[in-house]
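Hi support team,

I've been running sequence recovery on a batch of backbones for a student project. Most finish fine, but this one hangs at about 90% for roughly twenty minutes before it completes. I'm not sure whether the input is malformed or the queue is just slow. I've pasted the C-alpha cells below so you can try to reproduce it. Let me know if you need the job ID as well.

Thanks,
M.K.
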C-alpha cells in the first residue's frame, strides 16, 4: 500500500475544521473518502466506506465523538481514530484513549500537527502489516 493512499473520513460539526483538515490532508496526497457534520452520519459513512483513518470531533450536537468512538472501534478495529477537540482536558484525553482513540489533536490545529500525526499513523500501518510466511 502506498503510504499516502490511506483513506480518511472526517467527522466534525465545524465546516471550517472539515475544510481545513481536507486541505491539509489533500496537500499531502491523502484521499478523503467522506465528510460528516454529525456523529450518526459519520458512523454510517465509516461503516460504508471503511476508512483507514478517522478524524473525530469530540464536541458535536446530539451525540459526542466519545459516544460514537466505541461503536466505531468495535466495527472498525483496524482504523486509526484521531480525536479532534478545541478543549485541552487531560480527563477527556484519557477517556478518549481508554475508549480506543489512537491520537488527539487540539483545535486550532495547523499543518504540522495534522501531518505529524499522520506520519505517526503511517508508521503504525507499516509496522502492523502482516509479514508473509516464508513458505
Amino acid at each position: 500500500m502506498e503510504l499516502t493512499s490511506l483513506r480518511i473520513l472526517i467527522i466534525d460539526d465545524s465546516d471550517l475544521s472539515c475544510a481545513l483538515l481536507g486541505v491539509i490532508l489533500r496537500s499531502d496526497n491523502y484521499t478523503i473518502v467522506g465528510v460528516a457534520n454529525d456523529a450518526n452520519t459519520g458512523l454510517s459513512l465509516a461503516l460504508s466506506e471503511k476508512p483507514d483513518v478517522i478524524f473525530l470531533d469530540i464536541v458535536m450536537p446530539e451525540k459526542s465523538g466519545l459516544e460514537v468512538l466505541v461503536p466505531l472501534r468495535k466495527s472498525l478495529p483496524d482504523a486509526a481514530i484521531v480525536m479532534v477537540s478545541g478543549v485541552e482536558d487531560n480527563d477527556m484525553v484519557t477517556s478518549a484513549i481508554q475508549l480506543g482513540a489512537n491520537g488527539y489533536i487540539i483545535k486550532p490545529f495547523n499543518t504540522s500537527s495534522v501531518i505529524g500525526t499522520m506520519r505517526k499513523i503511517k508508521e503504525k500501518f507499516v509496522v502492523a502489516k502482516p509479514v508473509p510466511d516464508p513458505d
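--
Follow-up from support: It reproduced on our side and the slowdown came from queue contention, not your input. Residues 87 and 106 are 7 Å apart (CA to CA). No action needed from you.
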